[in-house]
Amino acid sequence: MRTSSVFKNRWMALIWAAGILWFAYDFAAPSGDATNNVANADQPTDVTGAPIKPEDEKKFADIVKGL
Q1: What's the burial of 16, exposed, middle or buried (CB within 10 Å: 0-12/13-18/19+)?
Q2: Are 54 and 47 contacting, i.e. CB atoms less than 8 angstroms apart?
Q3: Domain coordinates in residue numbering, the chain
Q4: What gap in Å lies between CA 22 and CA 44, rounded to an integer?
Q5: Gap between the Cα atoms of 23 and 17, Å rounded
Q6: Would the N or C end of the chain have less CB density within 10 A of its end CB?
Protein backbone atom coordinates (compact mmCIF):
# COMPACT_ATOMS: atom_id res chain seq x y z
CA MET A 1 0.00 0.00 0.00
CA ARG A 2 1.46 3.33 -1.04
CA THR A 3 1.26 6.23 1.41
CA SER A 4 -0.02 8.55 -1.32
CA SER A 5 -3.13 6.39 -1.70
CA VAL A 6 -3.63 6.07 2.07
CA PHE A 7 -4.21 9.77 2.68
CA LYS A 8 -6.77 10.20 -0.11
CA ASN A 9 -9.42 8.74 2.19
CA ARG A 10 -9.86 9.87 5.79
CA TRP A 11 -10.93 6.44 7.06
CA MET A 12 -8.06 4.71 5.33
CA ALA A 13 -5.67 7.20 6.95
CA LEU A 14 -7.17 6.45 10.38
CA ILE A 15 -6.82 2.70 9.84
CA TRP A 16 -3.23 3.20 8.69
CA ALA A 17 -2.45 5.33 11.79
CA ALA A 18 -4.07 2.73 14.06
CA GLY A 19 -1.88 0.07 12.49
CA ILE A 20 1.23 2.15 13.13
CA LEU A 21 0.21 2.66 16.78
CA TRP A 22 -0.56 -1.04 17.17
CA PHE A 23 2.85 -1.95 15.75
CA ALA A 24 4.60 0.54 18.06
CA TYR A 25 2.76 -0.80 21.11
CA ASP A 26 3.44 -4.40 20.14
CA PHE A 27 7.11 -3.65 19.60
CA ALA A 28 7.75 -1.48 22.68
CA ALA A 29 5.35 -2.95 25.26
CA PRO A 30 6.75 -5.27 27.89
CA SER A 31 6.24 -8.92 27.10
CA GLY A 32 3.53 -10.81 28.96
CA ASP A 33 5.87 -13.63 29.95
CA ALA A 34 8.19 -11.43 31.98
CA THR A 35 8.86 -12.78 35.44
CA ASN A 36 8.75 -10.81 38.63
CA ASN A 37 12.37 -9.84 39.22
CA VAL A 38 11.86 -9.11 42.90
CA ALA A 39 10.41 -12.54 43.66
CA ASN A 40 13.11 -14.32 41.65
CA ALA A 41 16.05 -12.21 42.81
CA ASP A 42 19.12 -13.98 44.13
CA GLN A 43 20.09 -13.51 47.74
CA PRO A 44 22.38 -10.49 48.09
CA THR A 45 26.03 -11.20 48.78
CA ASP A 46 28.96 -9.21 50.08
CA VAL A 47 32.18 -8.56 48.20
CA THR A 48 33.54 -12.00 49.09
CA GLY A 49 30.44 -13.74 47.72
CA ALA A 50 29.10 -14.80 51.11
CA PRO A 51 25.38 -14.23 51.68
CA ILE A 52 24.47 -11.16 53.73
CA LYS A 53 22.88 -12.09 57.06
CA PRO A 54 20.18 -10.03 58.79
CA GLU A 55 22.63 -9.37 61.65
CA ASP A 56 25.07 -7.83 59.16
CA GLU A 57 22.32 -5.63 57.77
CA LYS A 58 21.45 -4.41 61.27
CA LYS A 59 25.12 -3.66 62.05
CA PHE A 60 25.43 -1.69 58.81
CA ALA A 61 22.24 0.28 59.53
CA ASP A 62 23.50 1.13 63.04
CA ILE A 63 26.85 2.32 61.67
CA VAL A 64 25.15 4.50 59.05
CA LYS A 65 22.81 6.01 61.65
CA GLY A 66 25.83 6.83 63.82
CA LEU A 67 27.42 8.94 61.10
Answers
A1: middle
A2: no
A3: 1-30
A4: 40
A5: 10
A6: C
